[in-house]
Amino acid sequence: MGPKILTVDDSKTIRLIIGKAFKSYDCEVFEACNGVEGLAVASKEKPDIIILDITMPVMDGYETLTKLKSDPDLKGIPVIMLTAEAGRDNVLKIAKQGVRDYLIKPFKEELIVDRVSRIIDLKPKGGTTTKAKRFDDPLRVLVVDDKPAITELIAQGLKDTTWTVTGRATNGEAVDYCHSQNPDAILLSLSLPESAGFTLFQMLRTNNKTKSVPVFGMCVKTAMEDQSRAQQMGFTGIITKPIDMDDIKNKIARALSLDTSYKYFQHKNGVLLVTLPAGFTAHTANEVSIHLRTKISEAVDTGLDKVIFDLSQLKVADISLIKLGLEVIQLTGELSLKLRMMGSEIVSNECRKYEETASWRFAATFEEALAQLSGKELSNA
Amino acid sequence: MKLNLDDLVKCAVVDVFSQAFGLSITPEESGSLILNGEPHVAGAVGFIGEMTGVVYVYCSARLARKIAATTVGLDESSPEADDLVNDTVGEVANMIVGNVKAKLFERGVQTVLTIPSIVRGSNFVIECVSNTERAVRSFRTSENHQVVIEVLLKSAD
Lengths: 381, 157
Description:
Radius of gyration of chain A: 22 Å
Structural class of chain A: alpha/beta
Helix content of chain B: 25-40%
Number of helices of chain B: 3
Largest interface: A-B, 25 and 30 residues
Oligomer: heterodimer
Strand content of chain A: 15-25%
Number of strands of chain B: 7
């Protein structure tokens, strides 16, 4: 049985869009049209995630959230809020209420799947249950595009991985390759002549060997009709040109549920060390956040009671970092773990700029942080 | 603070129709609602706070059904079809006004949205009270469907 998703929205349209978005995934979607109904369904079904609208009749999203968080049985359920507002203040307000993420309407189906899959483990229907692969495992990526420059660009962009990129220009060549090689992911141009990309997608989905292989449509950002058609047909995702290589890596990693936790979590000298990389982005924050609870629980299971949160490679503090930091503090606090942060003078100064992070204190080195933790300093930053 | 609400509305309509429904839509130089006896649907969402008003989104029932069909796979024979079309137009209005709200917020104007409501018919006029500013902007989709946005605005005292 797949995970349970509860969507609480007074708009039937939005509920249907959300239901449609998850149709090709192994999950159950429950609906409620206001907060009161939402709480009742949540109590009965114990969903793995709740997608909660803010403006609703009877009981709005904020009140619903407050009631969820005050119910011991429901408070652990991650919530994604649907909001019409952007802006730092609003995001921080939402973050402080314990919301895992937020989405601004209008949103594409692909985006809601993307955000939900960052929090819960979503698998395509009919997917295999093989052992989870790691990001640094060798993977085969097939690029189907009649422009060799695109294949070359992708091959160059994935050079820092252990993945092999193979290009094919026509449907026939691509089918032959799939027959002999079993690709792990397929990047398929939506602008092939005579809609050949869509035809190939249908062929891949009717073939037992390739029906579960993630297929991403590639097109220019402005090709809205192609994107919409691909989404309706059930492509795993869309990659827009100009191509962002990190986007490709992230989308493939998510679609294949690749384990990326080793990049951020390690046990060192009796401490769980959580390291954020120099190229920290909102995506990195989400990746760390997905693994955080599990990794901390695993560490506790093995007898560790100290955590060092290493920000020493960062140069700026932004909303993603603040949200993640607050989450680390909350989780370590819940489990009564000793936490110490590690960071440079630069990041320390950055953090002083914000009310939420002004009190964070940093050790300059791992050794210093370790010494402070061992000196019975119980510091949640 | 001088706010160009017309520009905000234009951006919001173009964004929402392209992002949510994959429809290309263009603002027209001038325009009022052409009813022509054809059934129309109007979705309304109000906003209150430092600015108070209501935004109406008018479109033909044909376009509303097309949007509902694209977005949620409307089944025309379903007894719930009309409800779903209404709901979709309400959501269109909600997204447009939500988009405007976010832009107003960026400019320091705080507002709260109301829940959408719907008016349907072939020959109706919505009139406003005398101390209200009224702005009408017409848009046209690439398939020649008209969409009209009417903003009724009252400055908070």
